[in-house]
Amino acid sequence: MNYVYVLTASPDDTYYEQFFLSVASLRLHNPSAVVIVLTNKNTEKYLCGCRRGYEKYVSKIENIAVPDKFSQKEASRWIKTSICQYIAGDFLYIDCDTIITGSLDYTSLRGINIGAVPDCHIPFKNHHYYRQFRDENIKLGFNSVFEYENYYNGGVIYCGDTPDSRRFFEKWHSLWNDCRQKGSSQDMPPLNRANYEFHNIISEISGEWNCQISHNGLPFLSHAKIIHYFSTSLFFVSPPFTLASESVLSSIKKTGEISTEIYAKLQDPKSAFEANSTIVSDDDVLKVINSSIFSMLRRLRKKNRVIFDILDAFVYRLIFFLKRNVSSGR
């Protein structure tokens, strides 16, 4: 069975460290897996010295020719949307910001062309980023994606070895190139547009294959095969999932190795959560958390805690003043 990663990284980020953790967890639980890594020349020259630990977990690494003008992110998307050009047979594509928790035997998925999990495990119309995704798709001319219930996440994708699957990837790659020329390097809008053009070719697979723990993934956690922790959403948030923490990634970056303590967490990743964390399900609270106002306040506290504390104290006194005046009938 083939398991595919796309890696583009530099000394200034932690994409390699995320990949290293993910592929180590995959090999831990799937010792006979065929693990294939697709990368580019800018990344490969960085994979030296203490950053060669991945080699014991990988079956094959292939350098893909990517246009020199592409940014690191664009190079990643270029390779990802054209995987079928480089891989023979069926495969399971896995994002780097993931942890594998057990067997990834995908025999049960054979018989479908493309398999994926809905983004955040919910119908598109209920998505907390619906307005943002809607506007982005409209700007790209992809209004048609709203006709289907699901908006699929591209973090884990099963691809069957069929002509239709390969044509789907060709279309996805072509649409991504069109989007790039329009100023968007995201891969999900063209993924879902390609799904529309292929008449809903993507089959919804169980959330256990792509357990997105940041949003609505808890019902799938107990049987999760892959935990997807969304590295790009962690810029201003200390993640409750400890294997995504800055301390873990920094440790690997410094030593090039997975410590005994970290490895123990890979053996039981479903319990690798911070003690100081809160589960929220109240709709009103979720709307506040997902609002632009909350996002602004979160950034403010991260960048300038003193100003945040002053503002928070002011709001507290204002609320106290208003409550006192209302209760006294003034």
Explain briefly what this protein structure is.
With about 325 residues, the protein is of the alpha/beta class. It contains 12 helices and 10 strands. About 40% of the residues lie in helices and about 10% in strands.
Describe, in plain words, how this protein is organized in 3D.
This protein is α/β, with parallel strands linked by helices. The chain folds into 2 domains: 270 residues, Spore Coat Polysaccharide Biosynthesis Protein SpsA, Chain A (Alpha-Beta Complex); 37 residues. Helix content is 40%, strand content 11%. It is built from 12 helices and 10 strands. The strands form 2 sheets. Strands 3-2-1-4-7-6-8 form a 7-stranded mixed beta sheet. The longest helix is centred in the C-terminal third of the chain and has 23 residues. The protein is globular, with a radius of gyration of 22 Å.
Q: In terms of topology, how is this protein built?
A:
Blueprint (H helix, E strand, L loop, with lengths): L1 E5 L8 H15 L4 E6 L1 H4 L15 E4 L8 H9 L10 E4 L3 E3 L13 E3 L13 H10 L16 E4 L3 H19 L6 H10 L4 E3 L6 E2 L5 H4 L4 E3 L17 H10 L4 H8 L15 H7 L2 H12 L1 H23 L3
Low-pLDDT parts are none
Q: Percent of residues in helical segments?
A: 25-40%
The string of secondary-structure elements, in order, is EHEHEHEEEHEHHEEHEHHHHH
Class from secondary-structure proportions: alpha/beta
The end-to-end distance, rounded to whole angstroms, is 73 Å
Bulk shape: globular
**Full CATH superfamily name of the largest domain:** Spore Coat Polysaccharide Biosynthesis Protein SpsA, Chain A
- Second rung of CATH, namely the architecture of the largest domain: Alpha-Beta Complex
